Amino acid sequence: MTMGAAITNPFYLTCLIILSLMQVTTIAGEKHSYVVYLGSHSHGPEISSTDLDRVTESHYEFLGTFLGSNKAKDAIFYSYTRHINGFAAILEEEEAAQIANHPDVVSVFLNKARKLHTTRSWEFLGLENNGVIHPSSIWKKARFGEDVIIGNLDTGVWPESKSFSDEGFGPIPSKWNGICVNGLDKSFRCNRKLIGARYFNRGFASVYGPLNSTYESPRDDDGHGSHTLSTAAGNFVPGANVLGYANGTAKGGSPKARVVAYKVCWLYKGEGSCFDADVLAAVDAAIFDGVDVLSTSLGGSPGTPFFEDGIAIASFHAAKHGISVVCSAGNSGPLAGTVANVAPWQFTIGASTMDREFPAYVVLGNKMQFKGQSLSKALPNKLFYPLISSKGAKAVHATIEDAERCKPNSLDPRKVKGKIILCLRGDNGRVDKGNQALIAGAVAMILANDKESANEIIADPHVLPASHITYSEGLAVARYIRTAKSPVAYITPPTTQLGVKPAPFMAAFSSQGPSSVAPEILKPDITAPGVSILAAYSLEASPTNENEDKRRFPYNILSGTSMSCPHVAGIVGLLKSIYPNWSPAAIRSAIMTTARMRDNRRHPVTDASGLKATPFSYGSGHVRPNRAADPGLVYDLTVKDYLNFLCGLGYNSSQIKSFTKEPYTCPKHTALANLNYPSFSVPNLNSTITVTRTVKNVGSPGSYRARVVSPLGTSVIVEPKYLKFDKVGEEKSFNLTVKLRQKDAARDYVFGHLTWTDGKHHVKSPIAVKAGSTQVIAS
């Protein structure tokens, strides 16, 4: 069969109809509930009950032509009789496809759950279920973070967003000392929810020169800041969605908290920068203002010494004043040693998925189909279009590598116009590739992963119809293009699919450990949802941040550790509400030691390639907010502990004294591994190491037993094996000894864990060990 620009063969049309119905993965013959929509009724609202019964009978008769009259009556469980004309029924996929072909049917679609959720993430984390908040939810215990103050270091805020409305909020907490600085933007207003805003641009101006008036405002012109702040503490906002996808009630982790925006990140010629000088000024102000939590979705280069890292320095001062500083781990994964924000006083967050996707199927002319993801608009018609690879569409002056990745000016419009183009992920942004394809005249884009990204596919609001597929699927599409005489493809409209398995798994972009500054501290600390997160946005920015994209959305879906960071910041706010006197270290410990390392199949968490992930990806595991509210034991830290740690890194007393402006002398002997952290990392083990930890009881009196899973090739012994606590606040210390069992063991990092349990609480800490060439003994 010869195939042109569009194909109308009935077989392919039937395939497309079936694909349009698929919003969850189905098995032939398996039944699901569908809605059969027939449009509107012609009768008025005063119709009699007899006539309503006749409508129901007409529905039975209609479905009976497909299933038989008896089966139709059993199948229908709703008959819409007054204004909406249609019915809901239990059907097989094939039956639904047949009904969809009937000329009287407007649409047939799966009966998807429309629940109250924030991009699904808070339900996925157990704070609600089908929109119902159980009394055991940390939201109830923490009064939704009422009157906790959460600050955000980012690109500012869009104050008009419903996520920051002060409707229903009482007076501003008396502890607030801050102000609302609107600069030259007289339309910018704070309120009883958004209680403060400041902007800091002098560090930026020192590099880029004098700034115009648009830089004199805390208003968010990028969208990133509004997104992160609303994820941490945005209000309940019904009906939030992007192009109809992810429809539900947006909300932050601490929805009743007060919020403050510190604008420290600025755009210049499309590039965003957040300078240390501005970050330090902002945190200095935040400490004075009285914030409880700082969400910091920005970071520097891995390997920067702590004293040369403005964020690390600022974070130390915040922690010293009891402020929890939550930081993103970075988006430089999956390479090892790329994690940023690794100071032990920072709470470092990796990114993982949740159980929601936005499938958009790629259908090839050879009948192959692949489940990708997208938030783009649909193709104008359910027709096949010619398919070309970006490599085959290379402009004369472009390199093959640039063309493969659909970089600017790399595609020949004469080759691309009117076709679907296959682009390779890497180097430039995912949405930018679609933008370049659109500029070149493509009708749609298939975005295929490179080898490094493997199976991680992300839903983006592309500027043209698109679908993002895996690396292996991209190879199959490329093979089809090479071998087919006239390759064609179609992309189905995206849908919203819930209950996806496995979830979570680690995002390929999430930066990984070990820390290149202090590998004795296992980083990142934890992982949280960071893929396809819906939250508030700026109406000055397009959803793709592409200049050619003229669309504006009040809510947008983004991915990154920037999105996982404020999830944890919101949870920290809840714990701060419940335990106002807990230190930032105690709160971090509660969240870390109650995390889990299994997905919703009860299997170990995997990476984007499907391989078992390690603590260098997820830290202590995936966050569980409700468990964190009752951790049983915590590993606490003081400022002096951090100072001793710095001594162990080689900083001298005079340096540290200038760092703190307080009397301090380094101890004679400091073992980095003895920092009272809720995880264990031994990067240079030759024979045996013994480390010491202290745990504090924050639950009821009781006895805890140590359970150990030793890293491969090692033995781990805990002494004592039992800890008995008679009162709240009591502290007990223990030693953990790690020994190599054989000479060639642990040449690369191996992992295990320690759990203290009293039967109710399970206080779990990961253990990472790597053999070295020098004997290390800490005691």
UniProtKB/TrEMBL annotation:
Pfam families: fn3_6 (PF17766), Inhibitor_I9 (PF05922), PA (PF02225), Peptidase_S8 (PF00082). The keyword Iron does not apply. It comes from the Eukaryota. Keywords: Glycoprotein, Hydrolase, Protease, Serine protease, Signal. GO terms for molecular function: serine-type endopeptidase activity. GO terms for biological process: proteolysis. Residues 398-476 form the PA domain. Residues 33-117 form the Inhibitor I9 domain. InterPro entries: PA_dom_sf, PA_domain, Peptidase_S8/S53_dom, Peptidase_S8/S53_dom_sf, Peptidase_S8_Ser-AS, Peptidase_S8_subtilisin-rel, Peptidases_S8_3, S8pro/Inhibitor_I9. Residues 145-621 form the Peptidase S8/S53 domain. Residues 674-769 form the Subtilisin-like protease fibronectin type-III domain. Residues 1-29 form the signal peptide. The active site is at D154 (charge relay system), H224 (charge relay system), S562 (charge relay system). Belongs to the peptidase S8 family. This is Subtilisin-like protease.
